[in-house]
Amino acid sequence: MSAPEPDGTPGGVWSTGVRRTRDGALAVAGADLREVAAEHGTPAYVLDEDDLRTRARAFAEAFASAFSPERGLAGADVYYAGKAFLSVAVARWVHEEGLGVDTATGGELAVALRAGVPGAVIGLHGNNKSDEELTAAVRHGVGRIVVDSLSEIDRVAALAAAAGVRAPVMVRVTTGVHAGGHEFIATAHEDQKFGLSLTSGAARKAVDEILAADSLELVGLHSHIGSQILDLAGFEAAARAVLTLRADVARTTGRLMPEVDLGGGYGIRYTAADAVPPAPREIAERLATIVGDRCADLGTAPPKVSIEPGRSVVGPAGLTLYRVGTVKDVALDGGAARTYVSVDGGMSDNIRPALYGAAYTAALANRRSDADLVSARVVGKHCESGDIVVRDVALPADVRDGDLLAVPATGAYGRSMASTYNLMPRPPVLAVRDGRTRAIVRRESLDDLLALDTEA
Ligand SMILES: *Cc1c(COP(=O)(O)O)cnc(C)c1O
C-alpha cells in the first residue's frame, strides 16, 4: 500500500496544508520540506499550525453549538489533552482557539501555566499524583483535580484546607465500557489501574466522601473510556452510565453535580486503510442527543459537558521528516524481497509501532518518482530489529540514500513519547504557518544529553 497523496481534506492522513510542489516535493502550509530539512536538519517533527488550530476550533464550536442552552442543554467545554503533545506554543494556540488544557503531571501543568493558560481552565489527572503535583494544582487554582482513588480524597482535602481554599474536584469513574478501534466491550469488573468503579460502589463512595469534605467542591463525574476510538457507541454507553450515577446521587443527597466530562479518545486516520473518523460536529450532535435524552428520562437537569480530545487535535497536524540512509533488499521465504529503508530516527521518535503495533504510512518528500513500487519497510537506526517506523509501505524502487521521507499523522504521541534511546538527541518540533517555519521545541543537542551526566 502506498501513501495516499495529500488532498487537503480534514479526513485525510496528511494535514490539510500538505501539498506537492510543481516539481514533486512535499510542502506543509507553503513550506517546501526540502528547505525545511536543509535549514533545520532531520529527523524533525513538522506541525501545521493552521490545521491544528482548525481542529481545536472545530471541537470548541461544534460542542458549544450542540450543547447550547437554546437546545435545552447546559453548554460544553473542550480541554486539550496535553499528553498527546504539549509545548508552550501549542498550549497557547489551543487556548486562543477556546480550549482549556488537560494535564496529567506536574510537568504538563508547568508548561500550560508557562503558556499563560489560567489555572481555572486547566485539569489535573493522574492515578498516582504526588504531593508536589497536588500542591501545585491547589496553589495555581486548577479548575478540576480529577480524583482517581479514595486515598487521594483525604490528601487533596488536607492540602486545600491548609491552603485555605475549596478545591474543585471530579471523580474519575470507570463505567465498565472499554473502547478502542472499532469495538467496545462492556465488562463488570475493571482490571486496570484507572478510576473508581461504578459497579463496585467505589465511585459512589468517593462522591459521598467528597460531599462530606469542607475543603472540597464536587464539580462532577469524569469518564474516559480509551483511545483511538472510531465508533461513538462506547461514548454513548459511558455517558448514560455516568448520568445515571449523577441522578442517583441527586436523588439520595439532593446534590446535582454541575458537570460531566466524557473524556477523549477520538480516533484519527493513520493510513488509507483506516476509516474516516467522525467529524467534531457529528461527535457533538450524537453526544448532545444522548445527554439530552438520558437526562430527560432520569428527570434531572442536564449537566455542563466537557471533553478532552488530544490525538484528534494534534495527531493529523503533524508529520515526521526523515532522511533516508541505508537501503537494503532482503530476500524473503518464497522468493519475494523486501526493501529495508533506514532513516535517521526510529523508535526513539516514534515508539507507537513497537509499543502498540501501530501502522503508519510514508511518502517520498523531496521528489516525485515514476519508478515501480516495491514492498518496503521503513526502519530506524536503533540497535533493535523491532525498531520499525512503517511496517509495510509501497515505495518507489529508486528510493535511495539522501531522499527525504515523510511519515504523516505523527503529531500525537510522537514527540511526547520520544526517548533518548541509544543517546539519540530528540528531534525538534517545527511549526509552519503561511510558509514560515520556526522551531517551537528546539532539537536536543549532545551537550543537552551530556549535561545530565554528573561525571566530568
Ligand atoms: C489520554 C487521555 C485523553 C486523550 O486521549 P486521546 O486519545 O489523545 O484523545 C483524555 N483524557 C484522559 C483522561 C486521558 O487519559
Please describe what this structure looks like.
- There is one protein chain.
- The protein has 12 helices and 24 strands.
- The protein is α/β, with parallel strands linked by helices and 456 residues long.
- It folds into 2 domains: 18-42 and 317-451, Beta Barrel (Lyase, Ornithine Decarboxylase, Chain A, domain 1), CATH 2.40.37; 50-314, Alpha-Beta Barrel (TIM Barrel).
- Strand 23 and strand 24 (436-441) form a beta hairpin.
- Helix 2 runs parallel beside helix 9, helix 5 (131-139) crosses helix 6 (150-163) and helix 8 (233-253) packs parallel to helix 9 (280-298).
- The protein is globular, with a radius of gyration of 23 Å.
- The N and C termini lie far apart (50 Å).
- 50% of the residues are buried.
- Residues 182-189 have low confidence and may be disordered.
- It binds pyridoxal-5'-phosphate.
- Pyridoxal-5'-phosphate is lined by residues 81, 83-84, 102, 125, 224, 227, 263-266, 308-312, 412.
SSE diagram, text form:
Blueprint: E1 18-20, E2 26-28, E3 31-32, H1 33-40, E4 44-48, H2 49-66, E5 76-81, H3 88-96, E6 100-103, H4 106-114, E7 122-124, H5 131-139, E8 144-147, H6 150-163, E9 167-174, E10 177-181, E11 183-186, E12 196-197, H7 202-211, E13 216-222, E14 226-229, H8 233-253, E15 259-261, H9 280-298, E16 304-307, H10 311-314, E17 318-331, E18 337-343, H11 352-356, E19 363-364, E20 373-379, E21 388-396, E22 404-408, E23 429-433, E24 436-441, H12 446-451
Helix pairs in contact: 2-9, 5-6, 8-9
The protein binds pyridoxal-5'-phosphate.
Function: Specifically catalyzes the decarboxylation of meso-diaminopimelate (meso-DAP) to L-lysine.
Cofactor: pyridoxal 5'-phosphate
Enzyme class: lyase
